Amino acid sequence: MKPLNSDTAPEPGYETAQTKNGFLVLASRLVFDEKLPIRFMYKTVPEHLNDTGWRMFTGYETDDFLADEMKNLLPVPLEKICLLDPSLTPLVQYNAGTVWERAPDTDGWIQVYDYQIPVPTTEVMITNDVEEFIRTKFADKETL
């Protein structure tokens, strides 16, 4: 089994063997508001039962735009997005860790192997020093 970030393509069947339970993708608002085509997409581990894990973008999103996910990424049924762009249908069968892109004004998709899929992060402090924990935990409080 090859790692997902390898520069070589995995063997056939490797990338489409997962069970698919979800039916929603998160698509950029620009796909609908500006009628721009999807040109970049990746599949992450689904966040809930209805989520396929697919995240779809036009390529024109700014960092500020993407920072407000609740406003700018829309949950869309997978079937609807595939009706808007039938070239997505064979691609959405792939597993988490898969990334696709297409150049402007082309219909063909290219699989990407060197993109690091973003993952949610949680800041955690680990210490065995109780006093340090209390100082850090209550640093913004005036008194304990």
What does this structure look like?
InterPro entries: Imm33_dom. Pfam families: Imm33. The protein is an alpha+beta fold. The chain has one domain. It has five helices and six strands.
Any descriptors?
alpha+beta; Immunity protein Imm33 domain-containing protein; Imm33_dom; six-stranded mixed β-sheet; 144 residues; disordered N terminus
Describe the structure in brief.
This protein is an alpha+beta fold.
Largest sheet: 6 strands, mixed
Q: What structural class do helix, strand and pairing data support?
A: alpha+beta
Q: SSE order in H/E notation?
A: EHEEHHEHEEH
Average pLDDT for all residues:
83
Q: What is the tally of helical segments?
A: 5
Point out poorly predicted stretches. 1-6
Strand content: 15-25%
Helix content: 10-25%
Total beta-strand segments: 6
Radius of gyration: 19 Å
Distance between the termini: 53 Å
Strand order of the largest sheet: 4-1-3-2-5-6
Tally the structural domains.
1
Which outline best applies? elongated
Helix and strand topology:
Blueprint: E1 24-28, H1 29-33, E2 40-43, E3 51-57, H2 63-67, H3 69-72, E4 73-77, H4 78-84, E5 99-101, E6 110-112, H5 130-137
